[in-house]
Records
---
Amino acid sequence: MIEGQEDVTWEQWLALARACEENRIDTLFRSDHYMSFAHPAEKGAMDAWTTLAGLAAATTTLRLGTLVSPVTFRHPSLLGKAVATADHISGGRVELGMGAGWNVPEHRAYGFPFPPLRERTELLAEQLEIVHRQWKDDRFDFHGRHYELENCTALPKPVQKPHPPLLVGGKGMPGTARPAARWADEYNTFMMPPDEFAEVVRRVREACEQEGRDPGTMRFSLMTGCVIGDERKRRLYGDETPPDTALVGSVEEVATRIREYGDRGCERVMLQHLLHDDVDAVAEFGRDLAPLVA
C-alpha cells in the first residue's frame, strides 16, 4: 500500500510494481489523494486511476487497486468507467476501494465539495450501487437522492466475472457497514488494534445479517503501517515513537503481530510502505514475511 500523494514518481511506481511481481506480492494498492498531507507545497500526487491504468499495461500478474477512492472526487459513472477501463488494460486485475472521503484541505484546494459526513455516507451508498450495477446489469435506471441515471448500459463490462472486487473502507459504523453489506466484497479497516478490529468484524457481520446476506461472504482486511528493521525505523520515525498500530520490528515480530489480526477475522493485510524509494523492503515483504503468515 503506497501513499501516492507523497511525491511518488512514475519511475518509482514502476520499480515498486516490478518488485512486487518479482517477489510474489499479490496486490499493489495506492491511496487516492491529490495533495500531500504534510508538504502540500513541495510534494506532488499523480491521479490514482490514471497511474493504475499505466501500471496495468506495464505488469502481467500484479493486481492493482485503490485504498480508497473518495466518493467526493468523481461521479460514480466516471469512476466505474475508469475502473472498467483499467480492468480491460490489465486483463482483469483491478480492485476498487471506496470511502466517504475525509481530508478537508485537499477538497478546498481542488474545489471538491465536502458535504457533512451524513451526506457523504449517502453518496457512498448510492455510488456503490451505481458502480456495482454498471458492471453487472445489462441495462438499468437509478433514481436516488444524489444521482439520476436513465437507461444505462455502461459498456464494455469489466473483464472480471462477476465484476472487479469492491472494497469499502471504514470503522464498522452503520454509514459504511450497511451499504458494504449490500454491495461490497470486502471491508477494510485502517490502523486499528486487534481487539478493535474484531469489533469492526462483528458489527459488519451483524449488518450483513440485517441485510439478509451470509456474513461468511464478506472478506475483512486491515491496512496498517509496516517497517522491518531498525535502520528503516530510524529513517522513518527518527527519535519519535512509532504508532502503536504500526507493525514495526523484525520479520518475525511483524509476523506475530499480523497473526494476531488473523485470529480476529482478518483475511489479508495491506502493508503501508512509506519509504517508497526502498524496493528492498518490498522484496522482504514478499520473500520473508509473506511465507510466515500465509
Note: The domain at 10-293 is CATH 3.20.20.30 (TIM Barrel).
---
Amino acid sequence: MTTSFAPLANDTFLRACMRQATDYTPLWLMRQAGRYLPEYKATRAKAGSFMGLATNVDYATEVTLQPLDRFPLDAAILFSDILTVPDAMGLGLSFAEGEGPRFAKAVRDEAAVAQLAVPDMDRLRYVFDAVTSIRRALNGRVPLIGFSGSPWTLACYMVEGRGSDDYRLVKSLMYARPDLMHRILAVNADAVAAYLNAQIAAGAQAVMIFDSWGGVLADGCFQEFSLEYTRRVLAQLKRSGVDGQPVPRIVFTKGGGIWLEDMKNLDCEVLGLDWTANLGQARAIVGGAVGGPGKALQGNIDPNVLFAPPEAIAAQVRAVLDSFGKPHTDESTTGPTHVFNLGHGISQHTPPEHVAALVETVHGYSRSLRKR
C-alpha cells in the first residue's frame, strides 16, 4: 500500500486538535455524510443497502466527499458504521429498513462471552481500503478522520442485539456478572485499538472514539465499565500517521459532560461534548492555560437548532462560540482551542441550506472573535 498522499491544503482542524492557534474555528459535523443529503440518498439507492454502501470502496468514498462538495467543512470523516467490529467478530450485522442495526447473535451468557476474540483485521479490509481511497480522493483538501465505537458502546449493541431504550439486558449482565462484562470490554478494547491503528496505517489523520452510550451509566459504573476501557484503547494507539504527522485522538461521550474531571487526564488530545455541557465551564476544567497542558474541546450545538430559520441558527452558533470564549491566538505556543461540531449526529430531516448557514456563521463569526 502506497503511503504517498498529497500535502494538506487546509490543516486548520488538525492544528486546533493539537491546541495550536488558528485563524478561525474549524468545523465538521457528526454524520455529515448521510441521509439529509439528496445525493447521499441517490448513492445509497444504487448501493441497495446501508452495508452495500459501507462495504463498497467507491461508494464509501463518494458519500464521504459529498458534504465537502457542498460545504467548506474543515475535515472529512470516514463513511462507515460503529458496528463493523462486532460484525467482524461473527455476530452477523444487518440493517432492517426503518429499524436500525441488529445482530443475528447476541452475547448474553458465558458460552457466548468465551467465544469472543479480537477479529482478524483482514475481515475489515473494506474499511481500510476505503480510508486509503478517501484520503487519495481528498487530494489534500482537508484531513480525514477515522473512528470506532467505544468498548462500552459496542458492548451495549452486542448484549442487547440491537439498539435499546432502557439498556436492561446489558446493565443486568453488568450488575449480575461484572466478570463477564469486563471480559467483553477487554476484548472490545483490544479490537478497537487494532481497528483504529489499521485505519491510521491506511491514511487516517485523526481518530475518534464514539462512546455514544457512556452517559446511560451510573456514576462509578461509567468510570469502571466505560472510561477504563476507553483508556485501554488510547494506550495502544499509534501516535503518528503514515506521513509522520501526529494523529490526534478524540473521545466523545454523549452525556459525559458531568465527568470532565475524570476525563481530564485521559491520554487523548480532544474531548467532544454534547449540547448539555457548557463549553466555557468545560474549558475551565480541561482546556488548560496558554503554554500549559490541556485538551482541545469539540462540539456542541444542539442538532435540532438546524430546524430553525437561518437567522436563528446563526444566533445559536454565535452563542456556542461565545460560550467557549476567545481561543488563544499565540502562534508560538499551545493553548485552549475549539473545534465546532454538533452535540450529536445530524438529523436526516435537516434542510441542507440550514447547514450552509451554520458553516458560514462558524467561519465568519469565529474570525471576528479573534480580532477582539
Note: The first strand starts at residue 76 and ends at 77.
---
Amino acid sequence: MVALGNGSREKVLEEISALGTSTVTVRPGSGFGDRRANAVRSLVSADADAIAAEPFAVSVSPEISSSGLATRGAVSMTASIAGVGVEFFDAEGLRLTRGSLLNRHQIETAAQVVILNEAAVRTFFPGGENPLGQSLRLDRMPAEVIGVIGDDGFGASSPRFFVPYSTVTKRINGQNWVHEILVRFQDDMPRAEAETAIEELLIRRHGTKDFFMTSSAAIQESLDATTRTLTLLISSIALISLIVGGIGVMNIMLASVTERTREIGVRMAVGARRSDIVAQFLLEAVAVCLTGGLVGIALALGGGALMEIFQQDIRLSWSPLAILVACLSSSVIGVVFGYLPARAASRLDPVVALARD
C-alpha cells in the first residue's frame, strides 16, 4: 500500500514538473469557482504581447479553448481544440517528435494548420500512417497536420489538437478574448517577484484586477501535501489489517497454550522458570509473524512486478525503509499479541498442568 501511494505521488509530481516550476498561468476572474469569470473578457492576446516584452519573460502564449467535431474519414470525435501562440509549447514543456511547430506567419494569417499529440495520431491515423501533410476537419474547418508532440503531462492519453489562436478567433468561434495566458519566466527569478511584476503590468492595462494567477510550483506543493495525506490514509488501512492479523496470532497462541499444557507442566517441573516459558512462546509468536511478514513482502514484490509488466497506468515505488518497517512491524505484532498467551502459559500451576490430559 505504501508503494502504491508513493508511486501515485511520484507520477503526479513528475507530470507537474514537466511544466517546469518557473511558469505562471493568468486567468480571468477572482479565482477558481468564480461564477462571473466567464463574463470577464478583458484578457486579450495583446496582454500576452505586453508580458512577452518584459525582460523576465522567457516564453509567453495566449490560449483560447474551443470544442468541435474532429473528423477524418469514418473516424470522428468531439475534440477539445486549443488555440495557442508560437511559444506555447516551450512554456508548456511539450516536445516535438515529428514535423514542425507553429510560426509567426501562421499566427498572423490565421493558418488552417494543426499540431496533434500522439494519442490523436493513434486515433485518426491508425496502423502507423504518417500524419504529416494529411488533413482532418476541426469543427467544419479543414486543417493540415504540420507536427506531432509527445504524450507529456496531464491529459496525455486523450487526443489533443493545437491550432493558432488567431485561427480559433477568425475561423472557428469568433472569440476575441483569451481564456488564459501562460508565462514562463527566468529560472533564477523568484516566483513571487514574477507574479508581482505580471500583476502590476496587467492592472495598469486593465485599470483593475480582474484576473488571478496560478503556478505549477503552487499546484505541485498542494498536490504533494494531498498525496502524502492519501499515502497516510492507505497506510492506516494497512495498520488496521495488522491489528486484525495480530488478534489472529493471539488466538492461535492461546489455543497452542491450551493444547500444550502438559508440555508446559513438564518443563516447569524440571526447572524451567516463568521467564523461560514467556521467552519460548514470545519467540514462537515472533517467528510466526515474521515469517508471515516476509511472505507478504515477497508476494507484494511479485505482484508489483506482474502489475508493471501488464499495465503502465499504475506505478509502484518500492521503499527499502517501508520494507524494513514491514519486517519490524511483524516482529512488534508478534511481541505485543504474543505476550498475553506467553504470560498465561507462564502462570500455569505445574501440578495442575501435569494432571491435565
Note: The chain has two domains: 41-209, 221-355.
